[in-house]
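To: structure desk
From: M.T.
Subject: fold request, one chain
Message: Could you run this one when you get a chance? Sequence is below, nothing fancy, just the single chain.
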Amino acid sequence: MPIEDYKLSKITSVDNEEVELLASESDGNKKFNAAFIQHWYFDNPSHSYSLWKVVVNDKIEGYATTNNFKYKVNGIQIMVAMPQNVLTSERIRGKGLFGRLYFKTEVHNLTDNNVAAFLTFTNSLSTQIFLNKFGYMKGKCPVVIFDLFSISHLFKKKNYEELKSIDEIGSSYFENRYCFDNAMQKDGQYYKWRYSQYGKNLHIIKVFDKENIIGYAFLKEEKKRGIKFLIIMDIIALAINYVSKIVNTCFTYSSVKFYSGTLAFDLTSVKPGKRLLRLKIKDRFNFLVKGRDIDESKMLSGIDFNMFFSDLDIV
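Reply: Done. Structure tokens follow.
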């Protein structure tokens, strides 16, 4: 079919169900359904995203998306686009539409969404395309920590309280939280949006230092090969010197609840105490970066980002 027969245009919420069908038929993201698309993109409190489709014979045959978030990079707040889903059907593969779709999102973000950088976690199939065709560079992937169950945690004094709902967190704690540099900038709207779709597998704990509240943690239950563990999705700390205590409290909480361990990203600015029962995994993900020009791309590739698992769309 000649290339002139294709039309590229923006995805609207009317397209959600047809995009879901394409993802299902073409071995796309398994959770890329209409409800997820509506929530993840259109309801994002940043109100910034780029969604494009390719249509042939009145049928959607491909899509490319970015979800955009506020970041602070080297002390400056910018808008960052995160490419997350790019797919074409078998019927149009090999015709160059994959790249055309992606570049539609990039141009749209640069010209209309005031985006200053691109960060993405790619799978094994798309990594080389992003590196060789889209101009991305390898970034410094945050180190993954897996803190194993420890019986010693069972004897520690309890310094946390489990919450039933995010609504139990007062607005002042969102407003007065410590904001990491080289990290996504989150507020109360973000947290409530991000965790509104989780059910019983979400754990929220309030952490104390003596009688004082020092922050909160969001943990997600995961199960792989029959083994249950927790993932630290986010923390809210009222000061930087509370961060490591909150993280270590998450490890304690996990053991008390008899999970096999806790998965987290290693934060560059604050380190939890050393333990023998802790695994560190480098380059677990394909983390790629791109700036508005080659110099900005090189700058981004050298940054140690402070990330949480909520920053990924895969969990």
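Reply (cont.): The two ends are 38 Å apart (CA to CA). Let me know if you need anything else for the meeting.
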